[in-house]
């Protein structure tokens, strides 16, 4: 039993560390109702395409809330810059939405989606 | 992103990963490490520190680097153990720099060492007169081993035809106020015997003892927490802040 534990504990520990370090690509995916980042981006793209600017701000809040939830899970396995890039996209998106700038809004959203897709790869 | 928390988690990952790898790599003492082993240690340490604090990159590539270096070091160890030819190439081998009291100048030249360096190492070993020396061997880790001429070796009981009983190694019976039951069993003693011995020394309870050791010759050493030493001697040679 002692010998088994001597071998098992380091193996389990290293396996746990590997899981933590590689968990980004799995944990970024939605686990609940209000942490679905790609869906929030999709909803925003739709509303911006339909020029539904009244609802865009609340959708951006939803996106930000979802992203903040995801950050807590993925921060241990991702680069700081990957996380900051997407946060910057959301910040610039707010500005573009305020100005009702369709072009910039869509650019930021597509860039944000690309960042999210590349995370953990 | 909570950077402090992320650094904490990555530090834990780096620390325990290094601990596991170091245990697997073995128990070589610092004094036995070759120059390459030092470089290996520094490199692995540098990778571990980047794994901990370099948030601009992911932990995974650093961890892969860490395990790669540790695995290669382990592989070199295995190869050196199994294949003497490779071991000679990888680790080098001891070289005799003084033989039968004579300096081997060619060996010194090949190893790029000056005789003055050898003299420094000899003085560190307490040898000030080359006439006393029979053999000096430069080990792969840079240390020297010295064999003095037989007439300059310390006297032993065997030289005087005196028979001595073996002492064996000391085993801890009490450590930090607690009995080490396993060691007591190994020395074929029991708690009753131990308490009797402690009572002879005026000790009523095991919790009073900091350390107790017993060797094969039956010599019991006991150190209590209360040493009855009023003031520990101050061996510092000048005044300081405390």
Q: Could you provide a short overview of the structure?
A:
The complex is a heterodimer of chains A (121) and B (242). Chain A is an all-alpha fold and 121 residues long.
Overall description:
The complex is a heterodimer of chains A (121) and B (242). By secondary structure, chain A is an all-alpha fold. Chain A has one domain. Chain A is 79% helix and 0% strand. Chain A is built from six helices and no strands. The radius of gyration of chain A is 19 Å and the shape is elongated. The model of chain A has no long low-confidence stretch (mean pLDDT 91). Chain B folds into three domains: 3-88; 95-152, 2-Layer Sandwich (CRO Repressor), CATH 3.30.240.20; 171-224, bsu07140 like domains (CRO Repressor, 2-Layer Sandwich), CATH 3.30.240. Chain B has helices at 3-25, 35-53, 59-82, 84-91, 105-111, 115-124, 181-186, 191-200, and strands at 95-99, 102-103, 133-138, 144-148, 171-175, 178-179, 209-214, 220-224. The mean pLDDT of chain B is 88. In chain B, 13% of the residues are buried. In chain B, helix 1 runs antiparallel to helix 2 and helix 1 runs parallel beside helix 3 (59-82). Chain B has eight helices and eight strands; from the N terminus they run ααααββααββββααββ. Chains A and B meet through helix 1 and helix 5 of A and helix 1 and helix 3 of B.
């Amino acid at each position: 039993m002692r010998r088994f534990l001597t071998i098992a504990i380091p193996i389990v520990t290293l396996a746990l560390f590997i899981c933590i370090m590689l968990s980004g690509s799995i944990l970024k995916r939605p686990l609940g109702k209000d942490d679905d980042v790609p869906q929030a981006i999709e909803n925003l793209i739709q509303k911006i395409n339909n020029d539904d600017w009244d609802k865009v701000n609340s959708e951006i809040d939803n996106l930000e809330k979802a992203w903040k939830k995801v950050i807590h899970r993925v921060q241990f396995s991702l680069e700081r810059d990957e996380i900051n890039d997407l946060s910057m996209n959301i910040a610039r998106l707010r500005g573009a939405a305020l100005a009702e700038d369709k072009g910039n809004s869509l650019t930021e959203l597509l860039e944000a989606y690309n960042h999210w897709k590349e995370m953990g790869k | 992103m909570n950077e402090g928390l992320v650094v904490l988690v990555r530090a834990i990952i780096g620390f325990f990963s290094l601990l596991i790898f170091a245990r697997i790599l073995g128990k070589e003492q610092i004094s036995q490490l070759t120059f390459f082993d030092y470089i290996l240690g520094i490199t692995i340490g540098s990778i571990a520190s980047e794994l901990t604090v370099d948030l601009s990159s992911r932990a995974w590539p650093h961890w892969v680097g860490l395990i790669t270096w540790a695995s290669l070091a382990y592989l070199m160890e295995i190869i050196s153990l199994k294949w003497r030819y490779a071991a000679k190439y990888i680790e080098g081998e001891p070289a005799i720099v003084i033989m039968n009291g004579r300096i081997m100048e060619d060996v010194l030249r090949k190893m790029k060492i000056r005789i003055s360096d050898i003299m420094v190492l000899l003085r560190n070993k307490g040898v000030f007169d080359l006439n006393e020396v029979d053999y000096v061997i430069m080990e792969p880790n840079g240390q020297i081993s010295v064999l003095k001429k037989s007439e300059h070796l310390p006297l032993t009981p065997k030289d005087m035809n005196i028979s001595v009983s073996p002492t064996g190694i000391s085993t801890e019976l009490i450590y930090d106020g607690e009995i080490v039951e396993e060691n007591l069993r190994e020395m074929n003693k029991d708690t009753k015997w131990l308490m009797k011995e402690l009572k002879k020394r005026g000790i009523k309870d095991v919790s009073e003892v900091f350390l107790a050791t017993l060797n094969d010759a039956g010599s019991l050493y006991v150190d209590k927490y209360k040493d009855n030493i009023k003031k520990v001697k101050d061996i510092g040679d000048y005044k300081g802040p405390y």
